[in-house]
Amino acid sequence: MATTSQAFLFFTIAISFSLTFLPSPSSSSRTFTTETTVLDVSSSLLQAQKILTFNPEMLQTSLLQDEEEQKLHTTPSSSSSSSSSFFVHLHPRESLINAQHGEYKNLVLTRLQRDSARVNSLFTKLELALNQVNKSDLHPTQTEVQLEDLSTPVSSGISQGSGEYFTRIGVGQPPQPFYMVLDTGSDVNWLQCQPCSDCYQQSDPIFNPVRSSSYGPLTCEAQQCQALDVSACRNGKCLYQVSYGDGSFTVGEYVTETVSFGNSGSVNRVAMGCGHDNEGLFVGAAGLLGLGGGSLSLTSQIKASSFSYCLVDRDSSKSSTLEFNSASPGDSVNAALLRNSKVDTFYYVGLTGISVGGRTVSLPPSSFALDQSGRGGIIVDCGTAVTRLQTQAYNAVRDEFVRQTRNLRSTSGFALFDTCYDFSSLKSVTVPTVSFQFSGGKSWALPAKNYLIPVDSAGTFCFAFAPSSQSLSIIGNVQQQGTRVSFDLANSYSAA
User: Fold this and answer.
1) pTM for the whole thing?
2) Helical H segments across 306-372, by residue range
3) Which of 420, 360, 352, 432 is nearest to 396 (CA)?
4) Active site includes 381?
5) Catalytic residue among 183, 229, 246, 313, which?
6) Which range is the signal sequence, renumbered to this chain (predicted)?
7) pLDDT tens-digit profile of 149-173?
């Protein structure tokens, strides 16, 4: 078993919610009081309708307001020191990409399809690491770049998905602004670059290295190049290739560039991929920011002592923030942050249990434990939408929720959800509170809208958890919405 870590994950409920700290039950004879939360059905359905008609061009006004806010609270700086504090704004995918689904049900189905591909890819990434698969065992992805340019084959079974939250950063000197996918489940940063042999459609003009005085190709001998899972050499310059399980991939030069965080500062010589051939499901964003625990992630390269984000509802057109090296909130729930020695990308947390309506669900102690082999455990991931629980744990949590909601009108399942309700005749409904429990008796109580979500515009709401056939569990972004999630990176991790 992993030992207790000195690093912590902090959860802070933002704005209109407050945390409830629940002591662990001292005996089975204690008085049981059901804890409930009110779900605003009308508000959720109204927001679902609004996101279908939202015009992404309206976001430009919001961006101008964001820039003015940054000017008032920050002064420009340029530093690679971990003591520097940076922040940028985050936007839900649908506020940038209007896919014109027509019906909210179709939008949800599309999201869940992306989510399933994402989860499968994380499982594949972990399995490759646990089984110690060598690069020579992986199969190459066919691209327009000549195969001889890539000295090492690449796996086509690893996918980080197409992203649910975007942030805006500047790349180059002078900075060129771009929307980038936010991803705590990957490490390599990259963006589309001119000249393009094949590039997908993005919201911003494609990055032009010629216009940047800080653009610097990496040599094949560079440490950053050697740290890539897949690297190659052409004319003395480092090439990278990242391939995804959904068929998407990016290929190009591995370089260093200046990255700017709005008006809060910039960092020089950040290694990233300059992709000339990028194909797949990344529509909208210019590329991806890897915030994982590996050496090539943005957080590692800028030597961040911590980072945090607050995710707004995915049906909202509002923005939130991604912050680096900001002070930890004082009213947080702390969870031990663990490291799996088999794979350094994922952020595991020390979850001890789950309660429904104030009643702790009976689960084996091993349900969320990270074992010596590197299997099991639970990670926090902003790229996965729906929380996945190991099947036995999911069944127990779901059954307890169903038991406490017998008074509610149930309906048939939807896609990966097997527990749904018909709230079409209700404006609001009282439901049992679902809470994550951590060591020390602390609990993170979720707002009702973070586990009962609309799947159509008619009033069908589903219990937004799903079973995992794998031993790994994942806390997804639906459950994280409205919460400031902070990662303490300065202290040491424990290893499985």
Assistant:
1) 0.82
2) none
3) 360
4) yes
5) 183
6) 1-28
7) 222 222 222 233 445 788 889 999 9
